[in-house]
Amino acid sequence: xxxxQPALKNGRNVWDPINMPIGEFQGRLRSVxxxxxxxxxxxxxAYGHAFNEYxxxxxxxxxxxxxxxxxxxxxxxxxEEALFFEGAARGLPSAKMITWIEDVRPCPDISRAxxxxxxxxxxxxxxxxxxxxxxxxxxxxxxxxxxxxIQTRIIEADDLMQDLRRxxxxxxxxxxxxxxxIVKNTLQFISETSFSSMNERVVEAMLFKEARLDxxxxxxxxxxxxxxxPWSLRPSEDATFEPGxxxxxxxxxxxxxxxxxxxRTYIAGENVFTLPDLEGTEGIYRQLTECMKPxxxxxxxxxxxxxxxxxxxxxxxxxxxxGQGIGLSMKEGPLLGRNATGDFEEGVCFTLxxxxxxxxxxxxxxxxxxxxxxxxxxxxxx
Length: 382
Prior knowledge:
The chain has 382 residues and is α+β, with helices and mostly antiparallel strands. The protein has 2 domains: 22-166, Creatine Amidinohydrolase, Chain A, domain 1, CATH 3.40.350.10; 170-379, Creatinase/methionine aminopeptidase superfamily (Creatine Amidinohydrolase), CATH 3.90.230. It is 35% helix and 25% strand. The protein is built from 12 helices and 15 strands. A hairpin with a 2-residue loop joins β8 and β9 (258-268). The longest helix has 23 residues, at 170-192.
């Protein structure tokens, strides 16, 4: 689910070596280098940007930048790793507090700093893998990098990183469970709280406060008013929730880099939100999860799910999607849909959404975060 990202990352920003020990990163590094060796890659460049697309460099370093700028991690097949971030040298002390990588280099332009580094390492004539650069790096920087490395063999390596990130380790799942606990607690807070105002921005601010008190690093909220025609999930506005009307709230929370997501439908009152009786909708949702087991085809399960929905529900899912993998990004592989490829794999964490028409609220949506175990799927936000 796409949401607006902040202009400045102002939440909790740490590296907790108890929750995410250095051995976790060293294990990832070994896995990356094994894949590099198999593809004859001398240097892997993993690029990320801002607060939605930081996954590749963060997976290797734990580092995210607090401004909407670029970050790159350079991994040689042998030797010391390096991290480049767009920013001034005064940011170096704080940068080193949130990463295990020793060689951290602030720079105004990552492409030029990276080119210099590659020449230092004598790899300007080797084979370099690009992970995220083609998709995320600013065009002028990418062009400079390619023009400078004309003697270098460049191969696309997005799939290398995505394959590793898709299957979550035990430590990663611990982080996602912590984020899921905050999602569950905050969604429960909505139905148990008397709000001073039913203004959208006031409600959003209270949700932010509740999630921050639980340790959230980043929070995203979208509201939907299904009695409106047309309607969509959108950021908050200076508008009120009308008493007696249905409200759909999407909440996504990150804890120490890792995301979880939940969607609930409420009925607005004078100063409260109540949960309507959606037993029929929840029953359909439970049926959707029964097929989702290790080894089952994603496409088959999604087609079965879509066939059980009325037209309005199918239309909602066509617009918003049934879900996708979640972890260091709110949108990872695998993508859930009728044309999806592959099977549900043990170790995959994903979101699942359902939208249906409801007489009491117009339209209702339910969404949760799940984890695929060897015994089936585990709900993290219900």
